[in-house]
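Running co-folding for calcium ion.
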Amino acid sequence: MRLLLVEDEKRLSEALEYILKKNKYSVDTAYDGEAGEDMAKTGIYDLIILDRMLPKKEGVEILRNVRSQGINTPVLFLTARDTIENKVEGLDAGADDYLIKPFSNEELLARVRALSRRQGEILLNKCLHAGNIALDTAHCKVTCGENNTVKLTLKECQLLELLIKNKGQVITKEQILDRIWGFDIDADYNNVEIFIHYLRKKLDHGAANVRINTVRGIGYCLEEGKNV
Ligand code: CA
């Protein structure tokens, strides 16, 4: 579980990060609205904990912008104000749940667990199709044709998911790095090339009738049809 925490109060942010990490969540932090929005828009998180009052950009605006880009990451909204209008505004903007400050650690962890469970159930039913392949993202495996199943690593699975969702369109190496490696600054285009290579081998091995075309100098494009 990879969480994004957007909270400008440094001491609160550090306390929350500590509690979440202690409970085995991996946590990235942002301290202002602009940085938070940029990170949220990568779509790499399983859950976003978003404060309402932030410098540079408010939580509600971030939420609207993130949702308008089609990113459905569950969002837990933190608010110090507890009027009905404020709750409704947050939920209208696309929050999945909210917590009113101050809250206890137990309360926070319970909400995080509930939202990740819900997300897990959505993922569980998710199967993506292209050509004769069906990608099961919950179990990181791809079935080619009737019953030829190939196991994928998590990164291969995320990469194939990205390609299938953008079938017929060119995805740049930069977009792939952003979406799959996120803020891992050690990753570069070599990583992308290596994983594309692995993925092609596995798809060939499984007799898939989709191919990953190289668009020289730009990136890749998934298309239906056999490799030639
Ligand atoms: Ca704040």
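Result summary
Residues 105-124 form the longest helix (20 residues).
The helical segments are 10-22, 33-40, 59-68, 84-92, 105-124, 154-165, 173-181, 189-205.
Job closed.
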